Amino acid sequence: MDGVLLLDKPSGVSSNAALQRARRLFAAEKAGHTGTLDPLASGLLPVCFGEATKFAQSLLDADKRYRATVRFGVATTTGDAEGEVVDRGPVDFDRAALEAALAGFVGRIRQVPPRHSALKHQGKPMYAYARAGIDVPREPREVEIRALSLVDWKPPDAIVEVACSKGTYVRTLAEDLGTALGTYAHLAALVRTGTGGFDLADAIAIDAIEALSPEDRLGRLRPVDCLLDALPRLDLAADAARALCCGRTVVAPEVAPARYRAYDPSGAFVGVVSHADGRISAERMMRSGERDEGPVPAAFQSGRST
Description:
Layout: E1 3-9, H1 15-25, E2 31-33, E3 42-49, H2 57-60, E4 64-72, E5 74-76, E6 85-88, H3 95-103, E7 107-111, E8 120-121, E9 124-125, H4 126-131, E10 141-154, E11 157-164, H5 170-180, E12 185-195, E13 198-199, E14 204-205, H6 206-210, H7 214-219, E15 233-235, H8 238-245, E16 250-251, E17 258-263, E18 269-276, E19 279-285
Parallel strand pairs: 1-14, 3-12, 15-17
Antiparallel strand pairs: 1-3, 2-3, 4-11, 4-12, 5-6, 7-10, 8-9, 10-11, 12-13, 16-19, 17-18, 18-19
């Protein structure tokens, strides 16, 4: 069971609970998701099965897109709607002031991670300290907001669309927006609309998966190499593909130095390879049914690299 499922996670369910439910429906031995969504949040959660888990890092590192509801005038203990109200303030700014504040957060910014986060401090997640009433130091981290636009403004709620780098905390962004506008704010709702090249419009809800036949469920899986579309393609000769799958290098002076998603002569994806100093070496390869211990190819033979 190798492939990628674009799951539309509902609000009120943890990412791990959604993952385990999907894993059981597909009878997959190995499964993992590509970036946690808080239980409050809903939206796109790509789930990797089998060999796809080897390549999940590409989506963990990818940019994300969100639609967030920011509620102004109220601060909570967690920075989102799950926390207790701790402060209130006025909401006396207009749409123009709000849009000006949003523009001020576009680009590289520094964020202090929320107290209730999964970041580790001395081996324990920060939320564990927060729940115990212990305050631990939180160092600012640099993230990038690629785009931030106002979709709707009905005081005290603003709906905004966010495109951001990995590691961005949208609830921290909501709180910082409140501060910039002279009041308080928290994240009232959050939907992940995209990650990397994937879009929420192509995802399926877990209840809809349950209603499908086993055959139709398999039809919802995307191939493993869909995780690596950002890498150029490299077509390998059969002996080169076998050598790389066995962990050996291949002489290839004519190939440009880069990382590649590699394919054998049948068109089957075999893994991620890198080229440097005239040689191709394996980075992470698909499982192979047989290991060929034959001679290492003296030269590279390939259809093309793109």
